[in-house]
Amino acid sequence: MPNTSTFARFRAPLLAGTISLLTLAAQAQDQPPTRPIYPPPAPLPSDTAAADQVGQSQEFAVPSVIGGGPSKGVVFHYERLGNFKIDTKLRDREPEAQASTTVTKNARAFIKAYAPLINHPHLKLILGLNYDREEFQFKDPNASNFYRNLEDKGLKVLGAQLAAIRPIDNVHWYIARVKGELNGDYTSGELSAPKDYLKMSAEFIYGWKRSPSFAWGIGGQLGYTFGRQSIYPVILYNRTWNKHWGVESLFPARVTVRYNVSPATLLFAGYTVDGYNYNIKLRQPLDNRLETLILRQTELKPRVRLEREIYDFIWFGLEAGYRYNASFNALDEDGNKGFSLFRGSPRPRIIDNTLGGAPYASVEVFLVPPRKFLKKTASQ
User: Which alpha helices (DSSP H) does the chain contain, by range?
Assistant: First the structure.
């Protein structure tokens, strides 16, 4: 048995130490630490949104999510459709005439560039420039005056936009964008009167950042997605469920499901709704002496897409799908105003076309922020 005198010598210090430990434990329960024990998770290395300060301790909210792929700075795109049939009704005369042929070429190409004018955590101002060109060729262009006017004619879009992304706090954000484009078959010498070709569009979305992997918002767009200028509501929904699966959508214009194979390879599947609106000066006037037409297009394109890193800041994209044409019609200037909340029923179409569906494929090369830049930005 232990020595009684020895135990007596240590009994008082042991008792005092036990009481002190119990007191400290009680105080720790009553006064929890003011700082978290663990730091918030950092964004994935593949999350290029780090260049936009996304995921930085959720200090400022933005619509991008982790795993959403690289931010595109410069884009080179070429798209080609397969042959498809076109049936035309010309209502510029009485009785109306009809024509039909096959479109043997419908190709599109564009160059887009985006540059940050302001890149702060609380405000991002981005300037965008684009140049698009579309061409048609017909099996029998002489079947209709309309075909002859489109044959080998370059339909161009020269545009500039200014977009602002404004985080309000760690949850709320909004996007505001305004864009002006010169759309038509103009030449450089005809741009002395740019208002004849000017098309304006705008957008505003207010949203919530629920986590680094989930953001959504609601708003409205004024634009030509559905052929004529119109205002329609939009829902933004960006979400990453795990390291592989996510969704990126701006409904109703586009919805895309994403699969991250690796940080350098992404797969997409979904649809887009594309709209175009061109002012065309006719080589030969119509029977009603009309010399200018506004051509409106709207198409639905289910698609699959691959994006792959080539080297650091250089990526390429391959896309394939099927084009369903909703409208491809021509109107005069008054008819192009169409229907809105402030106008009556639209005027009759001057040229009414029905286009067959066609498969399409596109190839794209785009530049993204280099990794060194992303690491430098993330460390600041």
Answer: 4-30, 145-150, 333-336, 371-379
- State CA 69 to chain mean position distance: 13
> Is 24 among the domain residues?
no
Q: Is residue 349 part of a domain?
A: yes
Predicted TM-score of the model (pTM): 0.79
- Looking at residue 126, which CATH number applies to its domain? 2.40.160
For 291, which DSSP code?
A: -
The per-residue pLDDT string of the chain (380 residues; one tens digit each, 9 = 90 and over) reads 444 444 444 445 444 544 454 444 444 444 444 434 333 433 333 333 333 444 344 468 889 999 988 889 999 999 999 999 999 998 766 677 899 999 999 999 999 999 999 998 889 999 999 999 999 999 999 998 889 989 988 999 999 999 999 999 999 999 999 999 999 998 877 776 778 889 999 999 999 999 999 999 999 999 988 877 889 999 999 999 999 999 999 999 999 999 999 999 999 999 999 999 999 988 777 766 788 889 999 999 999 999 999 998 999 999 999 999 999 999 887 655 544 444 444 556 889 999 999 999 999 999 998 877 655 554 44
Task: Give me the domain span that covers residue 84.
Answer: 60-379
Residue 23: inside a domain: no
> Is 12 inside a domain boundary?
no
Query: How is residue 309 written in tokens?
Result: 């890193």
Do 377 and 83 form a contact (C-beta atoms < 8 A)? no
